[in-house]
Design brief:
single chain, 771 residues, alpha/beta, four-stranded antiparallel beta sheet, globular, disordered C terminus
Length: 771
């Protein structure tokens, strides 16, 4: 197995870039290389001294230390640089004459930027951005340049920790449209938060209009989201839009913080990237920043006409917002109404996640007219993990119940947390198996919510849900109503409050903010007809009868299996041949994770990439015609499997002990019965803790025809994990990767005489007759 560098996350500053310099990659459209050189030569003077070479000779001190220096000028290869895949030739959009594309690399001293972001961007592209046939496609930063800016305060790992969402894509939606009142926007925010949306942002067009003034809107929406969080146990974030005049940015940012907002939405193309930087570096502000691309399209090159102008998508919508401290960046997904290509979207994702010194990776957030039906393809394209999916209009139009729509969004995104820690799904059980709908305090928060959820369709939907639940025989037999005082309750002053009396009643002392004590409409009295209740009772009774029959059948089958196992005359399927494409049964040995007539094998022949592992080939390599293989792997305490990635998927099911699965920069505990899925291209590993008292065993199911895995260097993966997680990296991950790197180094003496390692066979396999 070949050990390779961590190519999935390329570094932005390279060894040959001086630590006090930064290097800009320009795409040049020219008829010849000599013309391209002339353009670049003019460019490096334009971006610094803005004087011709005759007045600032190359050999002068300023010519050597201030003017940019050309490092390379090459014809662009097919596929291009910067992830856009446009090829070396233009499509004639710049003129009738066919021009060739070149890539020029120009290095500037950090002193030209003054260690300030506005001047850095000015040196990168300033006046030259006005010209045609030049485009910024990448930037490399020396270590001192990169460290001049704090960058994202949260990033991928910090946002996940803030939201308490450890795995799966994050979900975001927008409050809209412009012209909606603050009260109505707050109702929407409450419904979305109740349904589990992670981030609810203002639409970028919401500012300080008379329909929903900034302070009024922010106060009400933040309170609505906080109430929903009290009910669900989640930490949904509300992000108001800070599209404000320059002299009010800090004032409104501070107001949003005081109001309890969890993040803010910025428009760097309008208010400026340096405003984002200032907020990100403000320790008192300390909120995540989400960048929106409004106006930025005017600065982009590429597009359907493949223009050589402006910035590449990755630089403008990925790299620069990340350098400025944004924690997520919104951009139009391919296939939407804005026309971004797959290559351009991939360029943005790469800029968000590539190693950038010590700065954490940030969330790419594809949106722009995306529908719920597109979620699967978006997850596949962006890897299904560290991506912030943005769905707006489609979430509103799916049904009239915004909370149900939000839960549908969660489920389609592959998230398993359809209900929050404090909630109970329709079967009556929350995550801890507790049968009460809410604790008394949570119930009080719901009953005394100050939000008027008066959307008629939501009332009807909620009422129907209560009718169904109330009609359940299991509910009638086992549970009391979770809200016995639904129509009246005693307020804090012992006054009995009824729906008519509480219609316009406020209490200014509860939790430090106003609250309207109207009973929310999703707890409206149920008014089912007797016919509906009877019908539902009959259906539920039939379902319970069927469940009892199935339970009885399973018990009989289990008893039968025990009886057969104890019978001396029972003929095992193992009496037949093990090899060949015929039905067979492999009998597990008693008290051992071994199977009769099946040998335990070495995990791999190269001992440097793993420790304390073994494998058993169960089905697939003895002539069976399956298009999948089933193997059993076992890892001893303190051991680990190879840290690797490949393009085929596989599934593991834990059957013995407990351990951890590494997926990218995250590690997840796994126990007996847990199932793990590894998507194509994801770096992964399974390991058993040093202090474990039993081996960590798992069944692995994998495609029969698959590619050879590529080993990932543990020390390089540690650098990646630290760049993604910043100061939040778990100590157990760091120690494990350090131990693996040390183990690999110690195994160098096990190389073959020719310096190579023996090829492993645990993962790579192609059946006979298949290529």
């Amino acid at each position: 197995m070949t050990s390779t560098s961590y190519s999935h996350r390329p570094q932005r500053h390279l060894e040959d870039v001086h630590e006090d310099s930064f290097r800009v990659h320009y795409r040049i459209n020219a008829l010849s290389k000599s013309e391209a050189l002339s353009i670049v030569d003019e460019l490096r003077y334009e971006q610094t001294v803005e004087l011709p070479e005759q007045l600032v000779p190359r050999e002068s001190w300023i010519g050597r230390n201030v003017v940019g220096q050309i490092n390379a000028l090459e014809e662009e290869s097919e596929g291009g640089e910067g992830g856009e895949g446009k090829g070396a030739k233009s499509d004639g959009a710049v003129g009738k004459d066919e021009k060739t594309r070149f890539v020029a690399k120009v290095t500037y001293r950090n002193e030209t930027s003054g260690n300030e972001l506005p001047q850095l961007i000015n040196v990168i592209f300033g006046n030259t951005s006005i010209k045609e046939n030049v485009m910024v496609i990448d930037i490399e930063f020396g270590k001192h340049v990169e460290s001049s800016f704090r960058g994202p305060r949260f990033g991928v790992r910090g946002l996940r920790k803030l939201l308490n969402v450890k795995y799966g894509p994050l979900l975001m939606t927008a409050l809209k449209p412009m012209g909606t009142s603050s009260d109505k926007l707050a109702e929407m925010a409450f419904a979305f938060a109740l349904g589990g949306i992670d981030i609810i942002k203002d639409d970028h067009g919401l500012a300080n209009q008379v329909y929903a003034p900034f302070e009024e809107r922010v106060t009400k929406c933040a309170q609505a989201v906080r109430r929903a969080n009290d009910i669900t146990g989640r930490n949904c974030l509300y992000a108001p839009c800070l599209n404000v005049p320059a002299h009010l940015v800090l004032k409104r940012a501070e107001f949003a913080k005081r109001a309890g907002c969890g993040a803010v939405l910025m428009l760097p193309g309008i208010t400026g990237l340096d405003v984002c930087r200032a907020l990100a570096e403000d320790d008192d502000f300390n909120l995540p920043i989400i960048a929106h691309p409004a106006i930025s399209g005017a600065m982009l090159g590429g597009g359907s006409k493949n223009e050589v102008r402006g910035f590449s998508h990755g630089v403008l919508l990925g790299l620069l917002p990340r350098l400025a401290g944004c924690d997520a960046t919104i951009f139009p997904n391919f296939g939407g109404r804005f026309g971004f290509s797959k290559d351009e979207c991939k360029d943005i994702q790469k800029a968000c996640t590539s190693i950038l010194g010590s700065k954490p990776a940030i969330f790419p957030s594809p949106g722009g007219g995306m529908t719920l039906e597109r979620i699967k393809s978006m997850r596949q394209f962006y890897g299904g993990q560290d991506v912030l999916l943005l769905i707006g209009g489609s979430l509103y139009s799916h049904s009239n119940d915004l909370t149900a729509n939000a839960r549908h969004f969660l489920q389609m995104s592959g998230r398993i947390d359809a209900y929050g820690p404090n909630e109970r799904p329709i079967d009556g059980l929350n995550h801890n198996g507790i049968t009460n709908l809410y604790s008394p305090q949570q119930h009080d928060n719901v009953e005394k919510s100050n939000l008027r959820t008066n959307i008629s369709d939501r009332e009807a939907t909620a009422s129907r849900f209560e009718s169904i639940f109330a009609a359940s025989p299991a509910h009638l037999k086992q549970r009391q109503s979770p809200s016995p005082h639904r129509l009246s309750y005693y307020d804090d002053d012992k006054t009995k409050v009824t729906p008519t009396k509480q219609s316009d009643r406020y209490d200014d002392n509860h939790h430090g903010h106003n609250r309207l004590t109207t009973t929310p409409s999703h707890y409206a009295p149920m008014t089912p007809s007797s016919a509906e209740v009877s019908e539902l009772r009959e259906k539920n009774a039939a379902l319970e009868k069927k469940l009892d029959e199935l339970t009885s059948l399973v018990a009989k089958l289990a008893h039968s299996a025990d009886a057969k196992s104890s019978s001396a005359n029972h003929r095992h399927a193992t009496d037949g041949p093990l090899e060949g494409n015929h039905s067979k049964v492999l009998i597990k040995k008693e008290k051992k994770f071994m199977w009769n007539r099946v040998e335990r094998e070495m995990y791999k022949m190269d001992g440097g990439s793993f420790k304390g592992c073994s494998r058993v080939e169960l089905i697939g390599k003895r002539g069976e015609s399956t298009n999948f293989h089933v193997r059993y792997f076992e890892v001893a305490p303190g051991g680990w499997t190879t840290l690797e990635h490949h393009q085929h998927e596989h599934v593991v099911v834990i059957v013995r002990g407990s351990g951890y699965i590494q997926l990218g920069s995250e590690a997840y505990a796994m126990h007996v019965g847990d199932v793990g899925y590894t998507a194509p291209g994801d770096v992964h590993q399974l390991r058993c803790a040093e202090e474990a008292t039993d081996n960590f065993g798992f069944i692995c199911i994998v495609s029969a025809e698959r590619d050879r895995p590529i080993e990932v260097d543990a020390s390089e993966h540690l650098i990646y994990c630290e760049s993604v997680s910043g100061n939040h990296l778990e100590d157990a991950i760091r120690k494990s990767l350090q131990a693996q790197a040390k183990h690999r180094s110690a195994q160098e003496k096990l190389k073959n005489p020719d310096g190579s390692y023996a090829e492993g066979s645990a993962c790579e396999w192609r059946p006979p007759g298949k290529k």
